[in-house]
From TrEMBL:
UniProt xrefs under Gene3D superfamilies: 1.10.287.130, 6.10.340.10, Histidine kinase-like ATPase, C-terminal domain
Subcellular location: Membrane
Cited InterPro entries: HAMP_dom, HATPase_C_sf, HATPase_dom, His_kinase_dom, HisK_dim/P_dom, HisK_dim/P_sf, Sig_transdc_His_kin-like_C, TCS_sensor_his_kinase
Name this polypeptide is given: histidine kinase
CDD domains for this protein: HATPase, HisKA
Keywords: Kinase, Membrane, Phosphoprotein, Transferase, Transmembrane, Transmembrane helix, Two-component regulatory system
Record-linked PROSITE patterns: HAMP (PS50885), HIS_KIN (PS50109)
SUPFAM superfamilies reported in the protein's UniProt record: ATPase domain of HSP90 chaperone/DNA topoisomerase II/histidine kinase, Homodimeric domain of signal transducing histidine kinase
Annotated source species: Levilactobacillus tongjiangensis
UniProt domain Histidine kinase: residue ranges: 239-452
Length: 454
């Protein structure tokens, strides 16, 4: 049954990799040198065997004295070079007395080579030479090759062992140096995760390794975004609590007033009920706007081509009777096709008209314009109110934000309308900007994709 292995540390991974690498390199070196040395010795033995064969063919050695002369001329070591002679009758003799047992010893041939292993004698290079009357069996000893291989393998084993020892010590030091930034980053992340309700500090960002530095930068970007969301949630909760506290306090105050004075002063009851109705309606609008924001945050829509000029004309015609300010409408004569959602864009325009109505004087017009540019279709709603300072424009789409806090009780609203507009525009893959209107006031411009080119 297969079991899951334990997760490995930097040191384990590097040590295993370095050990495998050194062992592989050592094995390759041993094999390469051994094969090279063996081939070299075999070629030398083959060359010597050819020289000896030529001498044997010339001299027709048949006795020990002739063999000594031939062997001396070949330069071979007489202690490692032997010749067995087989005559025409099939009788085998040796030219050295102590090699008589050579013909009777068990032998094993190495495939694809002239090497044979003779039990009790060792490894030899074997060559057979046939003449008219005799057959010579040459055996050239490979004792030097075997000895050299033994020494070579012993030296390489010692060298590889020392390399592994030094390598493991180096790996331990290297692993600690490489893992230190990662461990510091992990510890900082654990501390941040332990207090998710607090604003998270930036994680330490090492200079190297580059991969860990990039990971730390990515984490810090994530933390920055998370901190921003956390701060917005805190502000949202604080603002929502503040907005709900006032109507609730008003409702409870009027209920207490009715309880205390309703029997003796019934005239206070209608007035108190009117305040309760007004504040409950305000709470209802606030809760509806919060629901709109919640749905917009989670909504996914499919954009479709629509005639923005036709949609805007319809909305303005229905909205004009509800307000005192005149609305001037400027749309192209031809269809202005944009990609969007009809219901959401209807809500966007209504919210912008509500905002312009609240901040514009009763006798000043509200301008609504639809324009086209290459690849884009724009909707602009302009008012002639007090305008919005440039420093405030980056915040007007935040939830519960009011430009003039001193006028927040005089002008209806809870600061959620433009936040909803911004979210709906994003869902329609557009963007909204604020500029100055002339001679005074603000222009809200919603830019959408042109359906013809998308």
């Amino acid at each position: 049954m297969r079991t899951n292995s334990q997760p490995r540390t930097y040191e384990d991974i590097i040590r295993h990799s370095v050990t495998s690498l050194l062992m592989t390199i050592g094995l390759i070196i041993v094999l390469t040198v051994s094969v090279t040395l063996t081939v070299d010795q075999l070629l030398r033995a083959q060359n010597q065997a050819q020289q000896l064969s030529t001498s044997l063919q010339t001299t027709q050695v048949s006795n020990f004295k002739d063999w000594l002369m031939v062997n001396k001329g070949s330069g071979l070591n007489s202690q490692n070079t032997f010749v067995l002679v087989k005559n025409a009758k099939g009788e085998t003799t040796s030219l050295l007395p102590h090699t008589a047992a050579l013909a009777k010893a068990n032998t094993w041939s190495v495939p694809f080579t002239h090497l044979v292993y003779i039990k009790g004698w060792g490894l030899y290079f074997s060559e057979t030479l046939k003449t008219s009357s005799q057959t010579y069996f040459l055996f050239i000893g490979m004792h030097v090759l075997v000895g050299n291989l033994h020494v070579l393998i012993a030296v390489l084993i010692i060298a590889i062992g020392l390399s592994l020892l030094i390598g493991l010590l180096y790996v331990r030091r290297l692993a600690k140096r490489l893992s230190a930034p990662t461990i510091a980053l992990a510890n900082a992340a654990q501390q941040a995760a332990a207090t998710p309700e607090l604003t998270q500090p930036e994680l330490p960002q090492p200079q190297e390794p580059v991969e860990v530095a990039q990971l730390a930068r990515d984490f810090n970007q994530l933390l920055t975004a998370q901190n921003g969301r956390l701060e917005r949630e805190r502000q949202f909760i604080s603002d929502a609590s503040h907005e709900l506290r006032t109507p609730i306090a008003t409702i409870r105050g009027n209920i207490k007033l009715i309880e205390r004075r309703g029997d003796k002063h019934p005239e206070v009851i209608p007035e108190s009920i009117g305040f309760i109705d007004q504040e409950s309606l305000r709470m209802q609008h606030l809760i509806e706007n919060l629901l709109h924001l919640s749905r917009a945050d989670r909504a996914t829509i499919t954009l479709q081509p629509l005639d923005l000029a036709e949609l805007i004309t319809s909305v303005v015609n229905h909205y004009q009777p509800l307000i005192s300010q005149p609305i001037t409408l400027a749309v192209p004569d031809h269809p202005a096709l944009a990609l969007g959602n009809v219901d959401m864009l209807h809500q966007v325009l209504t919210a912008l008209l509500d905002n312009a109505h609240k901040y514009s004087p009763a006798d000043q017009p509200i301008q609504v314009t639809v324009t086209q540019r290459p690849g884009l279709v724009s909707l602009t709603v302009g008012d002639n109110g007090p305008g919005i300072p440039k420093a405030e424009r980056a915040h007007v789409f935040e939830r519960f934000y009011r430009v003039d806090a001193s006028r927040s009780t005089k002008i209806e609203g809870n600061g959620l309308g433009l936040a909803i507009v911004s979210q709906l525009v994003k869902l329609n893959e557009g963007h909204i900007t604020i500029t100055d209107n002339q001679p005074h006031g603000a222009l809200f411009t919603v830019t959408l994709k042109d359906a013809k080119e998308n």
